[in-house]
Design brief:
alpha/beta; six-stranded parallel β-sheet; three-stranded antiparallel β-sheet; 10 helices; 17% strand; elongated; binds zinc ion
């Protein structure tokens, strides 16, 4: 029995699985890993400022035009579609096997694939709100606005509901993610090198039976895993879910 077959057996026997994922989950959808060695965060921007500076809350407040120019050109992938990994996880939830997806991604693709319980630790580009009146606006509204998106009701800036540098994680989302991981029987970690804290530290709350890591490169938690699979996440998950 190979590792994917073993994973299929574990999935077939459980109804309390939690998936924790990162950038690797969305690679097959054409969204780059911002934190990889050749990714966005290692690059200098055209403006000569680092991505960490330009995606900082104070930058949005001081230079909204430059912020949105950079944000729209480098963080938004409105054409991206869910891939086989997102679809496999949505299917497992519908079968009553998967309790939650916890993700570090901000692309909203789990929801688009049909997953219902998704804890987006860093927020989502799919949600946008006016900083003055709080009204929500769609991703299309932001994409189609010529420069700084302004609220159609009050003229305030419409910002993405993503966690920028200088901002903390949403306490409710973090607590709910922590609880789901602590109560799970099976934890599948995929497409993340588990190096971005505090999100990655959530994995330490797992106390269930099977801990599986699907990632191309080593992670700080490898020594605790029952099984490590170094293949593309969309391939492993779609094969493991097929025929269950
Ligand atoms: Zn408004």
């Amino acid at each position: 029995m190979n590792d994917t077959e073993k994973l299929k057996k574990i999935i077939a026997e459980s109804d309390n699985i939690v998936f924790f994922g990162g950038a690797g989950v969305s690679c097959a959808s054409g969204i780059p890993d911002f934190r990889s060695s050749d990714g966005l965060y290692s690059a200098e921007t055209e403006q000569g400022e680092s991505p960490e500076e330009m995606l900082h809350i104070s930058y949005l407040q001081r230079k909204p035009k430059e912020f949105f120019e950079y944000y729209k050109s480098s963080m938004l992938y409105p054409e991206a579609k869910p891939n086989a990994a997102h679809k496999a996880l949505a299917k497992l939830e519908k079968m009553g096997k998967l309790c939650a997806v916890v993700t570090q991604n901000i692309d909203g693709l789990h929801g688009e694939a049909g997953s219902g319980t998704v804890y987006e630790l860093h927020g989502s580009v799919a949600r946008n709100y006016c900083i003055r009146c709080g009204r929500e606006h769609s991703l299309e509204y932001v994409v189609n606005s010529p420069s700084v998106p302004e609220c159609e009701y009050c003229g305030g800036i419409v910002r993405p509901d993503v966690v920028l540098y200088g901002e903390g994680l949403d306490g409710y989302v973090f607590a709910a993610a922590k609880r789901s991981i602590a109560e799970a029987d099976v934890l599948i970690v995929g497409g993340t090198s588990l190096t971005v804290n505090p999100a990655a530290s959530l994995v330490a709350y797992f106390g269930g039976k099977h801990f599986i890591i699907i990632n191309k490169t080593p992670t700080p938690y490898d020594e605790y895993a029952d099984m490590i699979i170094r293949e593309p996440i969309e391939k492993v998950l779609s094969e493991a879910v097929e025929g269950i």
